[in-house]
Amino acid sequence: MKAGLFTLAALSAVAVAQPAHNHRHRHAKKDVAYVTDVEYVTATAQGPVVYVDANGNPISTSYPAEAAPTVAAAAYSAPAPVAPAPSPETSAYVAPSSAAAPPPPAYTAPAASSAPAYSAPASSSSAAPPATSSEASSTGHGITYSPYKGDGNCKSADEVTKDFGGINGYGIVRIYGTDCNQVPNVLSAATAKGMKVFAGIYNINNVAAEAQLIIDAAKSNWGAIDTVSVGNEGVNSGQYTVDQVAGAVSSAKSILSGAGYSGPVVTVDTFVAIIANPGLCNVGDYVAANCHAFFDSSKTADEAGAFVLSQVQRVSAACGGKKTVITESGWPSAGSANGAAIPSPGNQQAAVSSIKSAFSSNIFLFTAYNDYWKKDNAGTFGAEHHYGILGDCPSG
């Protein structure tokens, strides 16, 4: 790739999947290649291909029916994950095998010690969060949680409470949707432990109904809700356009504010999609991105924090310095190796420690417990069940 562009045909031959961590109501992610270097290249089976230069600036766009343009910079396109139901989800970034192309020099992320732990800058004036919001930055490290049993069925309120008995040292918990009565169940369990909730409206085509479920669960106690997200990787998956997501966020914000909520409303997408689609920068009150070092085959567990930090800096730069929060980042304890990225209990601990050292706030660790209801695919390295930082759920 040093001398020019990879063609779409060559990238298709790589066929490296970018797996979804199987959130409910999603389809599995489609093929994506992610190469870490000063230049990046990604291809998807469907959707437009956006070509950017080495600094991430868009150059041109082509579609599947068009031949890729000839330019001197690296080709780049936002990945297109798609989701099997049932499953909540996490994003992943899969590096291509070494045979996919002439191997570029490995990208070296800045050492975590080269800068103080990251705390996102104040939001830009273009989209400042409401002053009354608690903001994710005030709660330290966050963690994600999904209220599903191993067979995919919903957990009861008592089972959710039992799970939260094992979650300590986190100021905020992120959930993805409103099914399984999860908003009231998680709010009750989280607030009992002094935690706030990052709530989610998963289906952007059902904003009014899902927003009402959040309103009903909050019962005007909006201090317990840190943020509300609308959609998860909708642009990255190719399911929605930036304009569609923006409309859904605007609608949700209007409904929620009418019920007394004055906190941030955002959309979550992958760091890759946000850089490739800078219109996403202006959609929410801050920028919310998913980023996993494990899916870069050149990164070891102890480099996870520096890698994620470097991607936050890229996203923030692409978004004019706007506050950026990483809404998912983790490492599996079991599965197959992805190059230098090796799953193991020790490496999971090393990665989590590295991430926590690099970030004093504005980071959500993925995820609280192992999720046995998820399904692996060719691009997940047999690791989908094993991202639980705290091991297996106390509730089973």
Tags for this entry?
alpha/beta, 8 helices, 22% helix, globular, disordered N terminus
Annotate the secondary structure layout.
Layout (H helix, E strand, L loop, with lengths): L7 H7 L34 E4 L5 E5 L78 E4 L12 H8 L7 E3 L7 H10 L4 E6 L5 H12 L6 E8 L9 H17 L6 E6 H6 L10 E4 L13 H15 L5 E6 L15 H14 L4 E3 L31
Parallel strand pairs: 3-4, 3-10, 4-5, 5-6, 6-7, 7-8, 8-9, 9-10
Antiparallel strand pairs: 1-2
Run of helices and strands: HEEEHEHEHEHEHEHEHE
CATH class call of the domain at 112-365: Alpha Beta
Q: Quick one: biggest sheet?
A: 8 strands, parallel, barrel
Helix content: 10-25%
N- to C-terminal distance: 47 Å
Q: What gyration radius follows from the Cα positions, in whole Å?
A: 19 Å
Structure description:
This protein has a domain at 112-365: Glycosidases (TIM Barrel, Alpha-Beta Barrel). Helices cover 22% and strands 12% of the residues. The chain has helices at residues 8-14, 157-164, 182-191, 207-218, 242-258, 271-276, 304-318, 345-358; strands at 49-52, 58-62, 141-144, 172-174, 196-201, 225-232, 265-270, 287-290, 324-329, 363-365. The radius of gyration is 19 Å and the shape is globular. The termini are far apart.
Overview in brief:
The chain has 396 residues and is of the alpha/beta class.
